[in-house]
Write a structure and sequence with these properties.
about 1000 residues, mainly beta, twelve-stranded antiparallel β-sheet, ten-stranded antiparallel β-sheet, 6 helices, 62 strands
Amino acid sequence: MFKTAMEITMTRGGKMNHRRVVLITLLSVLTGWIDAEITLREDFLESPAHIPIAQQDLNQGHFLKLERIGDSAEKLKLSHHPERGNDPHYLWNGITDSPTAALFHFSSPLDLSAEASRIRVRTKNVGRSTMHLAIKRKDNSWLVAEKPVASTLDWTISEHRLEAQTWRGFDGAAIALGAEIHPRSFDEIAGLGFVFPENPRGSQDCVRLDWFEIVSPSMVVPDPTGIDYGDFIEPSLPVFRSGFVFEDKGVLNRTRRGAIFRIAENKWAAFDPDLLRYVAVWETPESIPPISMDSMPAISYPDAKAKARTAPWLQGKIIYKWPEQPGITRESFDPRENKIGPLPPAIGRWIGLEDVDTHRPTLVYQIGERKVREQCFWVNSSFVRKIEVSPGDSDIWINTHGQKGDQSPIIIDFPASDKPTRKTVSIEAGNTTISASSKSSKTFVKKALYAGTETIDSPIPTDKSKNFLGIRYINHPKNNHWHRAIRPVDLAFRENGDCYIVGFDGDIWKVTDIESVSATWRRVASGIYEPMAIETGLNDELFVLGRDQITELVDTDGDGIFDQHLCRSDQFIQSLQTRDYSTSLAVQADGSFLLAKGGIYHQKDLDSDVGQLDRHRGTVLKISSDGLQVETLAEGLRMPFVGLSSSGQPLVSDQQGQWVPSTPIHRLPADSSLVNLGYAPTNHSNKSVSPPAIWLPHDANRSAAGFLPFTNQAFPSIVNSTAHFSWGGSLLVIPDQDDNSDDFVWGFSDHFDIPLLNGDLHPKTGRIYAIGLGISGYVPTTKRMLGIAEIWQNKQIVYPTNIVSKTNEIELKFHSPLPKKLPHLYGGNIRAYNVVRTQKYGSGHYRYDETPGEDIIRIDKITSSSDRKTLRLHLGSHLSDYSIVRFRLVFADDSINIFTTTRGLPELTTDQLAAMNKQRRTVENDVVGDAEKGSEIFKKLGCSTCHSVTGEKLNGPSLTAKTYDPGYLEESILYPSKQVVEGYLPNMPPYLGVVSKQQLADLITYIQSISR
């Protein structure tokens, strides 16, 4: 099995980006996740190639002392070829003419006795030359692993558990392995080495060592689900979808959305829907997956650190390959703009997969007007394609591999015909044969894979009704027959009440009777590529949005399993960049789709120069109901979610980060004109920025997600409004825009135990079912990492439907009469401030006079109209234009938070500004820090996501590592980019003006109380 094997090999392109890892044992303890972190990493310095490799070439030279042994050890080289792609700085033994070894002595011993401890290396071993791991014991003797690191033709990462090796003694003089030795423990390892006992013969018979890591946990957190997880790529799965890359004669061969078929034990074939070509056929060593586990879901399944840095790489020995060009043309040309994206539909179009629930799925595509159905096999030593082409009036051609894919292509002719045409292509080394057949397509092999009707019972839901809201958490099953982690990212209901949940790992789960205490779960589809959304269509179709396409799931025989995965649309451009994936999907009243694509950009991510920032990155796209027409509605987005308001207007949120200082909510214009929404890297048209309808504070919605209209059935008090989900666990309300109202949002005081990403309405009860997931590397501030919440109105809610901001008052209109005892303002004031778009990470808060901080405006009195449907907040000083105005209305039994953006108000005079500043200073007198309050602020701001209070390394430095000076803490909170601790990225947003003087003092007092 791939996950449980003693050695797990993963091929990647390029070096990983954490060169300066310091020597400390790191552990990211995430709620319910096991995580072992890097203890030591040596990635040789980037210097010109030279002989021999020496101590000064080590990044970790302060801890590692290099010793070269062997008669020709002076020929061990630090090699690099800048003219080649994917050629790192590596240790090379190719010109040594006798056995050698490179030994690295530690300045102090390391404890590697934990079961999860392992050595990770990136190598490229070819020919007979081998590399064996070696360890130095506390008595200074060396042991060498009997089994060498596996030979690979491409750069490959492999992991090796110390306790899983057979160890032998080491004869340093002869560079030879000795008798078998059984180490008692690995608690005091004093060095790590690499032994090359075979003589190399130049570049064709040598070992290349790019880097090595030692990974060891300081503790292990039990997995809460109790599932004995299987492999991410299941042994019985006949096909799955993923992009990947491999190197072909120094040139990257890229498949941005692929279908990968298991054609025999350890043999694979991949089809590229963009170019309608078979990319490659290859063989993997036993227990090695066909591609490296570098997709976002794979690297976090279920216990790894989830920040993908490179696209998946093909692993194993290539048998046949096809260049990065169309596979359906007589001439070798590529008609696509910028050579990225699918072929023009008139030339060829991917239709999808049929018989997905069998051991022999059928891929379907179209060339011109003729449909092609085919299956692939491995028979004896041949790769076999069985092809059936529909009748048609035009000739078409299909290209296939020649001799090992290196020679001229084989062109298969399908002349015009009034009958189906069938041909079988058999390819083996040095020989390709094509035979015609008149047999029916029923000769396609079908063998049951998803046999049976296995279901699993859901645990009893947990009722946690709070204030205004009724909340019930749907607990997903702890175990399942498929040994799959259930990690939900979205759900959708069909008209009969059946619920379909899409998991981040590519599985679709059908949940029956989810509203009851005895719901049942069944897996009904799998193999989807990095899915993020699922929706039902106008005719109750089921659509799932993966990284590659909008897939329509179809059950042709009524057995409950989706045996067709049809491509409704793949006309959007998709790159291999790890952050280039679609986040959300909505179906409009005319059947068209709205799709939001991520735009976070890292130059080092893998793809062509064109593909890294293609015109569909960071956009909202409108796709026609037939999937063929694509229109860009908005660009300039970083990590958007799209949805529909209760009136059907498209709403877009974007997540806090560079250029986007807080969370903006955008209403897309009705005329579909293209707008730029502010994130500079994805402003492809260089348009001026269209301001958001509403800015939301970072602490109110630090990671904005999807939208869902409220129903009168489940929320009788909330009309003409849309729910907005926060990954931080908040539920916000966006009333429909009123021409006489400022845009505003209000939020419930209830906080959820799970992150909220998206959801759907139960067709029978009208209740909201919200769903969310946190993964390692992206930890929410909620109590739980994942889950599903059923939400309804728990009691009468009085809420505002309209806000009008004036210079000296704020007027709120309510849908129903206010209680006799009018609500009051929490703290007796409102807070107002501006944010500034910046290329740094986030923005501080700025007063009207552009100084850091927030303006505090006292409320003199609160009055209401005679019908108690209008509330007026009379201001103690004047109000002008602000990005964010916020306050909390407190009722007798609950409260709501209100956020609005004021525009068009007169500028403040000098006297008005002076009066406001005087009022603020009265509120912000000298303060004394309170550690208990600081602890609450620390949690509310999400600081614990990046800074551990128990000593582990997360995305930011631990706060218990040392005693921190108050001045240093203040600067680090307000201006985090001024001093960045070595080994960390400048990812912390500034809290300049975000926290008040009192809150800053409370935070500093709290941090000092836990530091040492």
